[in-house]
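Forum: Protein Structure Q&A
Topic: Joint prediction for protein chains with partners

I've read a bunch of threads here and the consensus seems to be that you should model interacting components together rather than docking separate models afterwards. I'd like to see that in practice. Below is the full input, 697 residues plus whatever partners are listed. Could one of the regulars post the assembled result?
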Amino acid sequence: MLKIQNLFVYKNNKKILDNINLTVKDKEIVAIMGPNGSGKTTLARAIMNDLELKKEGKIFLDNLDITNLPTEEIAKYIYLAHQTPPEIEYIKTSVLLKYLNININSIKDFIEKLKLPEDLLDRGVNNRLSGGEKKKFELLLILPKKYKVIIFDEIDSGLDIDSLNFVNDIILEKSKESSIIIITHYTRIFKKFSPDIVYVLKNGKIVYEGGNEVIEKIEKYGYKILEN
Amino acid sequence: MDIRSLKINKEKEWFESKYKPELEIKGKLSEEIVYKISKIKNEPEWMLKIRLKGLEAFKKQDFPDWGPKLDIDFDKITYYALPIIYPKPAKWEELPEFIREVYRKLGITKEYLEKYLGGAILQFDSSPVYEKIKDYLESLGVIFTSLDTAVKEYPELVKKYFGKIISPYENKFAALNTAVWSGGVFIYVPKGVKVDIPLHAYFRINLENMGQFERTLIIVEEGAKVSYVEGCSAPIYSLGSLHAAVVETYVHKDGELNYYTIQNWSKNVYNLVTKRAYGEENSIIRWVSLELGSKVTMLYPSLILNDNSIGEIYTISYATDDQILDTGGRLFIKGKNVRAIITSKGLSIGKKREAKTVNRTDVKIFKGAENSYVKSSCESLLIGKGISESIPRFEVYENSAYYNHEAKMEAIDKEKIFYLKSKGISEKDALKLIIFGFLEDITEKLPNIYRLEIKKLLDIELEKYGGIG
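Posted by a regular:
Agreed with the consensus. Here's the joint model:
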């Protein structure tokens, strides 16, 4: 269970998140929605303890206080699929996989299935990948491992419809063993499943907390519906 | 006590207490100073004449009108001192792996050292370690001694090559070195002899002296082969603020030379070095250089290549806060069917302040260098406040020659580090993976033992550095 208590987050002295309280239970699927600039990605990065952010409040994973745990420690339990993964030319993908103890044979089929470039392993990490391919690579790394929590930060943007189906399959599969947080501002990702809880974030605050019904509203009327 | 166990600010103290020069010649550089140095060394007349020509060339030349700013007052330089002692390891465990390998090959094992020498490796010229290496090289007919000794014992050889590959008019610092040189290595490999151990100053007690103005001369005769390893990974503290060395090497027809340098000067030193190899037909010359320390380094190993020869230059420079490492390489392609490469890599890691590397490559393909093939590349990796420049130059007078240049630069910012951390990699490991990846195409060409040495050295440096967060 991931529990966020009274979380305030600042970046360059500017307040980005304002008193966030939320709980993600084991194997639950939680959606965090909201317009651009509402603080969704900052929330994901705050959970991972990005040192560029200043935090007040607490984040617990089960009984473990992870608020100030080093990112690489948190990464043992929580996987963040990044929104815009950077290109790191000088670490070969194969070297990264080896470091992460991921057996290359165990993912070869997926490289093909995801239509990632054939020479992926010899390239630098994310090097010369398109936006969509970078998202796919983020997915690829989840597959061989087991996490307590998986955060998908706008995994749907830049993906074609086939890949979106694949993402849905992965989410369904992984939700059997992990808690899932889906950060998105579109509703199109919810094809084969519905989130258990939807939080809507605006200007750094949770302005709505509810069930599936909110997705339909957003689909029809946009985020305007949540004003007032 | 081992120098590597000392903190930086203690190095100076340690060296000064241990190696206080007994004799010093300083002040405005003049003929008188040059006479004095020559006299102390009890040199033959012809060497004094070469020195005086060097002095003349020194006076006639200015500082280079390009490159980093050099703030050197020649009136305050010590031109001769009883030389600085090379910090040699005293225990088996402290030896670099490639040295151990040579010792093992010659039957000098850890157990042997412990049994006969109580664990101490060096100290006396007559020690069995040095005897064995001396005997081995003598059996091959290889001369491996100090250049000072060679001037007296092999004057004809020295006369024939000294100053012929690098003229004192090459630059002001080469001229200075010619006038006041002291210390350095002389290697002569006779025709057809292939030396199967890498030579290193560790193997000769009388080579432990390394001066500010050291001079190295290596002659590889026809069909001969040798590898020379210069420097060591331990930081070298210098009492002087200027290191102006000259390295000249001449590789005859069908000869092969591998020259590996690791230099880690203390950060008070201007390291302004001129190194050049001349390769006759069918020669192979490989030059690998790793520069870590110094305040400012200017070093561009250069190769002059004739018909069907192969030349490779790989330079790596590693700059941290307040350092400027201006390195690269030069190729003079004179013959047909030459194959040559320069790869220059700059690693700039500025934690609090600027750290600068410059990749400077200079290629000249002469008319008649038919079908020659030259590739140069400059790569920079910037971390934190590191900055870098790449300055390639080509001068081509032969239409049938092929040449190509590539340049690459990558900055490692906090975003990339956060990404890797979020995948479960600590910052230190992330930097190591990036740096070793950056250097891979050079290190993969090195014998395993040097690769390990470089890795170990970078490990130590990164340990000191901490992180960019």
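Chain A touches chain B through 26 residues (CB under 8 Å).
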